[in-house]
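Bug #77: duplicate submission created two jobs. Keeping one. Sequence:
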Amino acid sequence: MKRLLKILAAVIVVLPLLAFGWLTYATQKNLAKPTPQALAALTTNDATIVETGEWLVMRPAGAEPAGGLILYPGANCDIRGYAPVLREIAAGGYLAVAVSMPFDFSIFAPDRADAVRQAFPEIEHWVIAGHSMGGAMAGRYAFNHQHDLAGLILWDSYPPEANDLADSRLPVVHIHRATPDGAPPAKFTAKRHLFPETSVWVPIPGGLHMYFGSFDGGGYEEEWEAFISRDEQLEAVSSATLAGLQEMIPQ
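Kept job's structure:
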């Protein structure tokens, strides 16, 4: 009996360690890392002030932010890969905060936006955004905090079925990759019922899922070849996100 208890105790200890090790390995193996272009955007200049650490924070230089944007990253995406877009958001007059996640998976910390909001009490109006899996978790957060937010911006994503926003009055913008004629991927069309009727869908014809940031590597398999450059898509994402913020946050 004692021998059996020792074996069970060993299993209880070893299995979590093995799972932790495997998850760490798999995450690093499939990590989408920031490109040199993204890393170059991590510098303070005349338009933006950059702070790095657990979060990537960018703020407008010489002015108080009109509001704040919290960004949840896609699965296996290093938050520094979003720096080129966040720089444009900050230069446009907003505080932009990309939140790192445990093992780079937002599902492990879907309420991390709470800590961001608490850390910047001077920001009155917040919009939450997310890319891919991060978009789904941003949708979940928006569902649970509809009276705390000014809006939701999804990058190539949709809310979870359990967090249906169809009846929500929260402003929602969906910026998504599209075929050259502007049609969204079929899986997004199939999830249209999860969005409010008033939601705004902004297609990026010829864009790619991983072009919502500036990344090297990663395990995501695209549905089609890009018809536009990464720089062109980053510019489109920045412009559409800023347009959404301008509509959601009082000036």
